[in-house]
Amino acid sequence: MAIIDQLSKDTTNTNNAFEEFSKSNPLFAVLSPAANQQGQLIQGAMVGSALVKDTAKVFWYLRQPQVQEFFPRNLKFYWEVKPFNDTKGNSYYNLVAIKVNNREGLAALSGEAISDARAEFGDNDSRARVSMTMNGEGSKTWARLTRENIGKQIAVVLDNYVYTYPTVQNEIKGGSSEITGNFSIQEAQDLANILKSGKMPAPARIIQEEVVGPTLGQESINAGLGSFIIAFIVVLIYMVFYYNKAGWAANIALLFNVFFIFGVLASIGLTLTLPGIAGIVLTMGMAVDANVLIYERIREELHAGKGLRLAIQDGFNNAYSAIIDGNVTTFLTGVVLFLFGTGPIKGFATTLNIGIITTLFTAIFISRIIFSWWLDGNKSISFSTKFTDNAFKNLKINFLGQRKYAYIFSITLTIISVVSIATRGFNLGVDFTGGRNFVIQFDEPVTTKAVAEAMNVGFGEKPLVVTFGENKVKITSKYRYEENGNEVDADINQKLYTSLKPLIKKDVSIDEFNATYKIKSDVVGPAIADDITAAAITAIIIALFIIFLYIVIRFRNWQYGLGGVISLAHDAIIVLGFYSVFYSIMPFSLEIDQAFIAAILTVIGYSINDTVIIYDRIRENLNLHKRSSKFDNYNHSLNSTLSRTFSTTFTTLIVLVAIFIFGGDVIRGFIFAMLLGIFFGTYSSLYVATPIAYDTLKKFDKEPELAKK
Q: Is domain 111-204 classified as CATH 3.30.40.230?
């Protein structure tokens, strides 16, 4: 009673008095015992209450060995599932003490015994209550429990939270019971649903949880929007610079495209995450591709001597095949991402596919409407400036003649990548290994070695620590990552605070540390890590198979499909190899996580888009120039599409560079993978996919070459 008396005394109520009390009674400084107005302890299961922010600290105190010595071994503590507010608006949780009647720590009666539960109203009053019915075995156990605990409380616990703890009035036979209390209708219905869901044999476990502090959240928003605006302006300027007045038509279509994307996202209520913003910005970079294809075709028709109106009409008609083929393959990759991805990958795939659909609409229809309006008004339309009029014109680069050197270069990089992957491995994120991530913001620069050694003191193991921005580090630890609950969180939070406090220059409390320095934490259980790994591998295999099948059907030659798939595997392996070789060298994180898989699959979609457009031109030239050799037709196709390849690659890279520089640390590793992928994807379309298609067709083609160089 001494503690209760001390708590109820009317002290000076100053911070100093409370600090003195906290030093002597640290537990009761955060846990108010259940007592009446006279300071007497209240009998019952509820032992006290604590502020929401102090619940973890309470559990940390309760699990200390010197505290546990005062409690029986069969005593467990649980928080109530719902908080309550005091008159000042502060939120509290009640702490409930429960007696465990068996050595295994299991409940005396599990949810399997409940056959039905429903909310009802009493016969004599309007108060809501819950009635439940049990099966035969459950009825017998329930009768025994209620008989032995008349006048005592029995708790209903689900997933380590107490939903109710009614007092037993008398022995209940027959398996039918009523739970009464001060329930609202909704609370009674919720409790009935909880009792029915308790029949499920597997508990609900948190297998992935993420907490992002407001500082990081605002940084991410500002960085995402900033990179979006910068990339958008750069693309608009480039289109006008390269295509003159026609570039303005493309920019108007691009503005409509962005408007449609955000309109669709708002209509379906999609939460816009950072990967989602990246998907929109990447779509914006790729959106110019359809316009570029059309404009390049129109320029070819104009150079052939056609009039402006006819050149525009034929340019649109001749570009449709390449536009559809290129975007369908990218769209199929997005579908695979959506079906087999999780979390951020789904958000990225959703915005990517929405962007592809709106891009096709705006590039084909809105651009056509603008040109028709200009032509009807007898307006002049130019498709180049004096700087770009002869750009990439009459090129005769011997791509196929250089293929042997390209093969040597690609095979060398592939071997280095495979060897590094097999021997050195990756910096796997918790998405694939399971574990806990913490992003800590320090006041001054710290070394990763110092952080790892400090963590080793508290956690008993050295975690993986990487630089994650200015004065920020990302810590990955496997300490107790397979466990969850308030008790585990309190233990980890306390150890993290104790370990890193010496590296913080000023004296901070654990609450200040959580609010200011620990700006992000997430945990992934081993179950989701295995699921993500399997889903990622499945997504890549299915994406490659679908792309191969589509190319074979569209071009009626398996050799084209083989060249496309080999080039995609080439791109993916080299990017993976780069992340394996350099993950401990680069100044930013090269971690393999869900976002990285999204980047790899996006690279696959982009690379095959480029390859299919070249294939489409090869097919056209083979039909138009039947007297020319395949060697000449292939080289001519590669050269004639080089202007489109440059424009699309340049705008996409500009977009990605803007995100990489201004998009923030969270997404930098993700964007770096796409930068590598776009570069090698463009290279492989020119020097891997097309040469392999040529060599395999030549080997299996029974018709002799008409000419050879």
A: no
